[in-house]
C-alpha cells in the first residue's frame, strides 16, 4: 500500500457507503465537512459531548458570572452547553424502554454527542449516519477515546438509504436533521429499519401552518443552513403515510427561547439568533418534539 493509500484508507470502524445521492447532498456534505464554528466546538469542549442542535430549559442565572467575573464567558458557554445536552436528554427520554442488547439509529448524527449520551443512558448500541466524512471521523474518534467504539459508530451514508437491516432498530431519531430531506422518503426509511412497536422521535424546527406560508425569518434560516424547513402538517401527514403513529407532539418553542436569548448575549453569536427569536415570537416557526410508534 502506498502512503497516499494509507492516508485515505478508512478507519476500521468507519463503514463507508460511497457518494452522495444528489448534488444537493454533495453540497450538504461539504457544508458539514467545513463547519468549525466556535459556538459548537467550544461548547463541546466543556465535557466532550459535541452537539449540532439547540438548547431547552430555564437558564440557571446563578451559574452565570457577573460583569466583573473573569470566568463569565466560560460560564455562559457551559450554560448554553448544559441546555443543549438537556435537549438531547428530552429526546432520549421519549425513546421508550431500551435494553442493553438493542440497537438505535441516529439519522443525521453530526459529531455524535447524542449517540454517546444514548449509549451512556441505555448501554445499547447506536448506529449514526451523516453525509460528512469529517463528522463521522470526529464521532468515531470520540467513541474510541471513550472506549465505547464497540457500541457507538458513525457511518458516512444517506439517511434515506441506510445499510441497516429491516426491522433491526428498537428506536430511531432525527435531532435537527430532517430539514435536509424529503419527509416521505425519510419516514419510509425509518419505518423500514424500525421493528414493529419501535419508537421514532424527532426534534425539529417547523413552520406553522397557522401563519400561512414560511415567514421571512424561516427563509433566512433556510438560506443560512442550506436547508428546507418543512411545515408541522407535512411531518404529521408523512408519518401517517408511513406507519408512524404520533404518541406525543410537544411544542418546545417556549422552552427554547431562553437558550436563544442567552446565546444572543454571548461573544459566540453567528448572526442567525434574531431570525430564531423573531420567528418563535411571531408564531411563524415552532420548535417541536414528535414521538411516534411504528405500527
Ligand atoms: C444540524 S446537524 C444535527 C446533528 C445531530 N443530530 C446533533 O443533534 O448534533 C444536521 C446533520 O444532518 C446530516 N444530514 C443532512 N442530510 C443528510 C442525509 N441525507 N443523510 C445523512 N445525514 C444527513 C448532516 O450531515 C448533519 O450531520
Ligand atoms: C431548528 C433548525 C431549523 C435547525 C437547522 C439545522 C441546524 C443547522 C441545527 C444546528 O446546527 P449547529 O449547532 O451547527 O448550528 P449553530 O452553529 O447555529 O449552533
Ligand atoms: Mg450549535
Automatic annotation (TrEMBL):
Keyword Methyltransferase among UniProt keywords: yes
One Pfam family named in its UniProt record: CMAS
One example GO MF annotation: methyltransferase activity
Residues that span the membrane, as ranges: none
Entry EC no(s): 2.1.1.255
Presence of keyword Manganese: no
InterPro entries the record matches: Erg6_SMT_methyltransf (IPR050447), GPPMT_Stmyces (IPR049645), SAM-dependent_MTases_sf (IPR029063)
This protein's UniProt keywords: Methyltransferase, Transferase
Chain segments annotated as coiled-coil in the UniProt record: none
Domain of life: Bacteria
Region of interest (Disordered), ranges: 1-20
One record GO biological process: methylation
Protein name: Geranyl diphosphate 2-C-methyltransferase
Gene source species: Streptomyces rubiginosohelvolus
Amino acid at each position: 500500500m502506498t502512503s497516499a493509500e494509507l492516508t485515505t484508507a478508512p478507519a476500521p470502524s468507519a463503514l463507508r457507503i460511497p457518494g452522495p445521492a444528489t448534488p444537493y447532498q454533495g453540497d450538504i456534505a461539504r457544508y458539514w465537512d467545513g463547519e468549525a464554528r466556535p459556538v459548537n466546538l467550544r461548547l463541546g469542549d466543556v465535557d466532550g459531548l459535541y452537539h449540532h442542535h439547540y438548547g431547552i430549559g430555564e437558564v440557571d442565572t446563578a451559574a452565570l458570572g457577573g460583569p466583573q467575573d473573569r470566568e463569565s464567558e466560560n460560564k455562559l458557554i457551559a450554560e448554553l452547553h448544559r441546555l443543549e445536552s438537556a435537549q438531547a436528554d428530552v429526546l432520549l427520554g421519549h425513546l421508550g424502554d431500551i435494553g442493553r442488547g438493542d440497537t438505535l439509529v441516529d439519522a443525521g448524527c453530526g459529531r455524535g454527542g447524542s449517540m454517546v449520551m444514548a449509549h451512556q443512558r441505555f448501554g445499547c448500541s447506536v448506529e449514526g449516519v451523516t453525509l460528512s466524512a469529517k463528522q463521522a471521523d470526529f464521532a468515531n474518534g470520540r467513541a474510541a477515546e471513550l472506549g465505547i467504539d464497540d457500541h457507538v459508530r458513525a457511518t458516512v451514508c444517506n439517511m434515506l438509504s441506510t445499510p441497516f437491516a429491516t426491522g433491526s432498530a428498537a428506536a430511531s431519531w432525527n435531532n435537527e436533521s430532517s430539514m435536509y430531506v424529503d419527509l416521505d422518503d425519510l419516514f419510509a426509511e425509518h419505518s423500514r429499519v424500525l421493528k414493529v412497536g419501535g419508537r421514532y422521535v424527532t426534534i425539529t424546527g417547523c413552520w406553522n401552518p397557522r401563519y400561512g406560508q414560511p415567514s421571512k425569518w424561516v427563509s433566512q434560516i433556510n438560506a443560512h443552513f442550506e436547508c428546507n424547513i418543512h411545515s408541522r402538517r407535512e411531518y404529521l401527514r408523512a408519518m401517517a403515510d408511513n406507519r408512524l403513529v404520533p404518541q406525543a407532539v410537544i411544542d418546545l418553542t417556549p422552552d427554547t427561547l431562553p437558550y436563544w436569548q442567552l446565546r444572543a448575549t454571548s461573544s459566540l453569536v453567528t448572526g442567525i439568533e434574531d431570525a430564531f427569536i423573531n420567528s418563535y415570537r411571531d408564531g411563524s416557526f415552532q420548535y417541536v418534539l414528535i414521538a411516534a410508534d411504528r405500527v
